[in-house]
Specification:
The complex is a heterotrimer of chains A (327), B (307) and C (510). Chain A is of the alpha/beta class and 327 residues long. Chain A has 2 domains: 241 residues, Rossmann fold (3-Layer(aba) Sandwich); 66 residues, no CATH class. Chain A contains 10 helices and 12 strands. In chain A, the strands form 2 sheets. Chain A has an 8-stranded mixed sheet with strand order 6-7-8-3-9-10-12-11, with helices on both faces. A 4-stranded antiparallel sheet of chain A has the order 2-1-4-5, covered by helices on one side. Chain B has a domain of 213 residues: Orthogonal Bundle (MetI-like fold), CATH 1.10.3720.10. Classes of the chains: A alpha/beta (327), B mainly alpha (307), C alpha+beta (510).
């Protein structure tokens, strides 16, 4: 296989707080190629955001610690990269869109200034006029009237603020876009608009994207690949068709699908996944889902399952051990 | 914005009335007869009575107050009962000294306090952080009269770098300004430090980092302006106290300022002088508060000045 | 960006100060800078509404001149009066005035001015306190005046050397009024009043039209330094050349060889005076207990490091009319006797409250006395207040005793009159009657004022002091001491009994 754009190998990340150590990411393996759109699904606290932040080395200093593994971006070793190298990557080649648009923008700078900043940082040779044009262009693309670029964030609605965030992330035409639940804080109608917008821009520039979400529907619509994260690990991964045909799924993924309310047929009670998310300060020895899994065996509880591949579809569960081989 | 400023200034009037009335009341009920003080120990009963009549000391309080304020509205602050000089002139001749001292000392507090606070925040929990806090607390704990005296002895008498007393050229104000600035230093450092640490945790700082800003750029463009908002308020508060607050420093360095004018007037119950100074101070504080609010609005676009 | 702006600002500030620096000028042989403790603000002794005080008086005696000049040992010298004589009955003083003297505005000084001035001063409350028994003055010819008194007044000539004999220009006064005269004082003295900057300084410059000898010191700057430490620092650093009314304890701790200082018995006396109308001080045995329980030596040491003089009667040493030792009774410190008196009294532990002025030497001495009284079992408390409150308090009779110094500008035993003559002390009943008076004492006070014969006066005052001592109406604690500190290169500075009498034209630099 050719060089992947992004390769995460065996990544372990923990948060060292005063009370306890939180093991947020436990052996994450991930690859992404140029132009690919990967959906990252999982509940809150599964370790999705942490992974994204790790790629950009944006973990809270001192508290967040990467203890094992490697992240390689286009041949660059991220975890050992110098600060200057990271600064060159951030915003220009890898960009991030954050979850809460209300707080992600600097309240005392105009939106124009904030988008401008990306260009000033990475294209210092660009003329003032060129930069202005670029800003106007990107604002137009995200659907904000360019005469509003001298207004301040508080003068915009939530949806528009997120568009500004997208504009900031895309103005330098990055190769990789990390979108951390970009629509979770917005209402449904706006959600659709934003996602549509992102899809258009992604297609236009062939940007690779990791779309983090807990909404399976969104993944189905916009992503080619999907990975399901639980307890800091990827427990299922594959093309969207593989995962969504529901022939073979990790029990957790199954549970996720079943807990979606059905619009057709008689309405019965919702079927949640019993139990609670695994405690990241106290991870079990065996499979992290074993406690909640209806199919769990003693082996599950004692031993960690491997990642069993069937073509492009991989599942981390002993039930699929006898598939075509291990990853 | 013009409407807002006008409204604020108009609102100042009842505030000034309230303060001046209150002070007038206190001065009236305080023990001590101004007439006796003015005439001296040898005055006879008749003379004292005549003086009291002349000064209107036996009129009802409200009448006296209204007469006084009527005069103020015409720009007439009256004459000192004790020295006979025109109150406005006395005040104005002292004002430049106090303002110079106040401005300079505030400048020092800001120029030393804010950078130290930034430094401490950037090296949080490190040795630099603790050192700056200890230094700031050390200076704040030293009483002005002691610090001033030490400064006079070491820097004036021994090293001859600065004059020890008096208010002449700018050189005369350095030691007093340093002495006066120490009091607010710890507060300034701590406030700046806390403010910066809080802003550092906010999401938009992370966004800035994700765009590729260097740490310096983050501090200068994103953190500082936001972190300095509470600092502006505290500076404004400090500044408002310069008109009456430097009494010890003025005394130690023999600077004829507004504070000593007022204190001496209080001691001899010289009501016109006390009232004159109070009127000025209340207006000054009101104006400074207004300026702080305007500054705030200028720096933070979220703030709307509702007229 | 803002940080560097601030940095630039500060650097510019510092740089500009380097440019503007006025390093302390090399000692100028013609100028002197004098430090004083409080702001001088009244420059016309004849002002009817304003009062002059101790800080202005030296300025007054250099801008104006009195009729007679008092030397350092209280000898009388001619100044604006060249000769004087007293009538047989002691009631008329005839003075010959110096001819050819002009005020600084060019007007002549003559008898008309002198008579006018004295007739203004005499009846005024403060003037009358010095010009005792004053009646009127008439000009006999252009350069002779006759001052008429209602009765003889022994220290009258001293009064003619004081601030209520400072001559001013009648013509100008009548033209511009007292307020304007106060702002631009005009006198015959060797110095002109150049300017006053509020709270900072008063500037005096040599009067080129002065009738007398040209002084060596041509410029005097009178600076205000309210804090004692600041005064010492200014002396040490050379920012002032002379310090009047200097604090002796501070001077004794001064460690520099650039400064010298002198002290002299002052004209003020500290007395502890009882309010005999309220308990427990209405009991003579109690008062006697206090009399014997006070160790005045200790007070002297505590307040002045021993530099002052322990007191016995309310007349300072050196005052005219003071009885000789042996003529009057002296109470010696005797704690045993004090306890006896206390036991004999009706005292039951009630508080004995002494009123005094805070921040003064009187407060310190009251506290020392308090300690001494507590030792013999008296529940003594000290209530120190600010000046205004104190004035109110003393006339309301709420305290058992007051501890306060009082100055006598005429340097005479007659100073007692104002405290011990009932009518005067209570302002004819206006103030609370502290019941420490008697008709006999009243009469002695009146006789003492009028007396002309020295021996006779001494007897009168000896009697008066004994009455006070026997009745234990007051205790004289100490006689104050005046100190003046000056740059060792300045000669001619002499400590004076009266704080006002520093004559700048007597000084010169080496």
């Amino acid at each position: 296989m050719g060089e992947h754009l992004l390769e995460i190998k065996d990544l372990y990340v923990q948060y060292n707080t005063d009370d306890a150590t939180v093991y947020a990411v436990n052996g994450m393996n991930l690859t992404l190629d140029k132009g690919e759109v990967l959906g990252m699904v999982g509940e809150t606290g599964a370790g999705k955001s942490t992974t994204a932040l790790s790629i950009l080395q944006l973990l809270p200093p001192k508290v967040g610690e990467i203890t094992r593994g490697s992240i390689t971006y286009d041949g660059t070793d991220i975890l050992n990269a110098k600060a200057q190298v990271m600064r060159g990557l951030r915003g220009a080649r890898i960009a991030m869109i954050f979850q809460d648009p209300m707080s992600s923008l600097n309240p005392i700078l105009t939106i124009g200034q904030q988008i401008h900043e990306v260009l000033e940082l990475h294209f210092p040779s660009m003329s003032r006029e060129e930069m202005d044009n670029r800003v106007d262009e990107i604002l137009g693309l995200v659907g904000i009237q360019k005469h509003r670029k001298n207004e301040y964030p508080h003068q915009f609605s939530g949806g528009m603020k997120q568009r500004i965030g997208i504009a900031m992330a895309l103005v330098a035409e990055p190769e990789l876009l990390l979108a951390d639940e970009p629509t979770t804080a917005l209402d449904v109608t706006i959600q659709a608009q934003i996602l549509q917008l992102m899809k258009e821009l992604q297609q236009k520039h062939n940007t690779a994207m990791i779309l983090i979400t807990h909404n399976l529907g969104v993944v189905a619509e916009f992503c080619e690949k999907v990975c399901v994260v639980y307890g800091g690990e990827i427990i299922e991964e594959g093309a969207v068709e593989d995962v969504f045909t529901r022939e073979k799924n990790h029990p957790y993924t199954q549970g996720l699908f079943e807990s979606i309310p059905k619009l057709t047929g008689p309405v019965e009670r919702l079927v949640p996944i019993q139990g609670f998310m695994v405690d990241p300060t106290n991870l079990p020895k065996g499979c992290s889902f074993a406690e909640r899994c209806p199919y769990a065996t003693d082996r599950c509880r004692a031993e960690k399952p491997g990642f069993y591949m069937d073509g492009t579809h991989g599942i981390k569960c002993f039930r699929y051990e006898n598939a075509k081989g291990e990853a | 914005m013009g409407k807002y400023i006008l409204k604020r200034l108009l609102l100042l009037i009842p505030v000034v009335i309230g303060i001046t009335f209150f002070i007038y009341l206190i001065m009236s009920v305080a023990p001590g007869d101004p007439a006796r003080l003015i005439l001296g120990e040898n005055a006879t009963a008749e003379e004292i009575a005549a003086k009291r009549l002349e000064l209107g000391l036996d009129d009802p309080l409200i009448v006296r107050y209204i007469n006084y304020m009527a005069g103020v509205l015409h720009g007439d602050l009256g004459f000192s009962w004790y020295s006979g000089y025109d109150v406005m002139q006395e005040f104005l001749s002292r004002l430049p000294n106090t303002v110079t001292l106040g401005l300079l000392s505030n400048l020092i507090t800001i120029c030393i306090g804010i950078p130290l606070g930034i430094l401490a925040a950037q090296h949080q929990y490190g040795p630099i952080d603790y050192t700056t806090l200890v230094i700031a607390m050390l200076f704040s704990s030293m009483p002005a009269f002691w610090f001033g005296l030490m400064a006079q002895i070491y820097l004036s008498i021994n090293l001859k770098w600065f004059p020890a007393t008096g208010a002449g050229d700018l050189y005369h104000f350095i030691l007093p300004a340093i002495t006066l600035s120490t009091g607010g230093l710890a507060g300034q450092v701590r406030l700046t430090r806390t403010s910066i640490l809080e802003v550092n945790k906010l999401d938009y700082v992370r966004t800035a980092r994700s765009k590729g800003c260097s740490e310096n750029q983050i501090v200068m463009h994103h953190v500082l302006r936001n972190a300095l908002l509470p600092v502006i308020t505290s500076i404004g508060g400090h500044f408002a106290t310069i008109l009456g607050g430097a009494i010890v420093t003025e005394s130690v360095f023999a600077i004829p300022g507004v504070a000593s004018l007022m204190i001496n007037a209080v001691k001899v119950r010289d009501v016109p002088v006390v009232m004159g100074v109070i009127v000025f101070i209340s207006v000054f504080v009101g104006v400074v508060n207004l300026l702080v609010d305007l500054c705030y609005a200028a720096v933070d676009p979220r703030v709307k000045l509702t007229a | 960006m803002k940080k560097s702006l601030a940095l630039v600002l500060v650097l510019t500030l510092i740089a500009s100060m380097a440019v503007f620096t006025t390093a302390s000028a090399a000692p100028d042989k013609e100028s002197v800078i004098v430090g004083c403790a409080a702001e001088p603000d009244c420059f016309f002794p004849g002002h009817t509404k304003l009062n002059t005080n101790m800080d202005e008086v030296p300025i007054l005696h250099n801008v104006y001149e009195s009729l007679i000049k008092l030397g350092p040992n209280n000898e009388r010298e001619p100044l604006l009066a060249t000769e004087w004589s007293l009538s047989e009955d002691g009631k008329v003083y005839t003075l010959k005035l110096r001819e050819g003297v002009k005020f600084s505005n060019g007007n002549d000084f003559n008898a008309e001015d002198a008579a006018f001035a004295l007739n203004l001063y005499g009846p005024s409350p403060n003037g009358a306190a010095q010009l005792g028994n004053y009646d009127f003055t008439e000009a006999l010819d252009e350069y002779t005046i006759a001052i008429h008194l209602t009765d003889p007044y022994a220290p009258f000539l001293n009064a003619l050397a004081g601030r209520y004999a400072l001559m001013f220009d009648k013509e100008t006064y009548e033209e511009i009024g007292e307020d304007a005269y106060n702002e631009h004082p005009i006198g015959t003295g060797p110095y002109l009043f150049t300017e006053r900057v509020s709270g900072d300084h008063v500037q005096l410059d040599y009067n080129p039209n002065y009738w007398g000898e040209e002084p060596s010191i041509k410029h005097v700057t009178w600076r205000v330094l309210t804090d004692t430490n600041t005064q010492m620092v200014a002396l040490e650093s050379g920012e002032i050349d002379v310090l009047t009314r200097a604090n002796i304890a501070a001077l004794q701790n001064l460690m520099t060889d650039q400064v010298e200082w002198q002290a002299k018995d002052a004209s003020s006396i500290e007395n502890l005076i009882f309010n005999c109308a309220i308990a427990p001080t209405n009991d003579i045995n109690f008062r006697k207990a206090v009399q014997y329980a006070i160790n005045k030596e200790d007070v002297n040491i505590g307040v002045f490091n021993g530099a002052a003089t322990v007191g016995d009667i309310p007349i300072a040493p050196g005052f005219s009319g003071r009885p000789d030792a042996g003529q009057y009774e002296v109470i010696e410190y005797n704690p045993e006797k004090a306890k006896e008196y206390l036991a004999a009294s009706n005292y039951n532990g009630e508080p004995f409250v002494i009123a005094t002025v805070s921040g003064s030497n009187d407060e310190v001495s009251a506290q020392i006395i308090q300690g001494q009284l507590i030792e013999i079992g008296i529940n003594c408390q000290v209530n120190a207040m600010d000046g205004s409150t104190y004035n109110d308090a003393t006339t309301s009779g709420t305290f058992n005793a007051t501890n306060r110094f009082g100055g006598v500008s005429v340097l005479d035993a007659d100073g007692m009159y104002y405290t011990w003559n009932k009518a005067n002390a209570t302002k004819n009943g206006l103030y609370f009657d502290t019941m420490r008076f008697s008709d006999e004492l009243d009469q002695l006070m009146i006789d003492g004022r009028k007396g002309t014969d020295d021996a006779q006066r001494k007897e009168i005052y000896a009697k008066a002091c004994n009455i006070i001592t026997e009745n234990a109406w007051a205790v004289t604690i100490f006689y104050d001491v005046n100190a003046v500190a000056y740059n060792k290169n300045l000669t001619g500075v002499v400590a004076r009994s009266l704080n006002g009498l520093y004559f700048f034209n007597d000084w010169n630099w080496n």
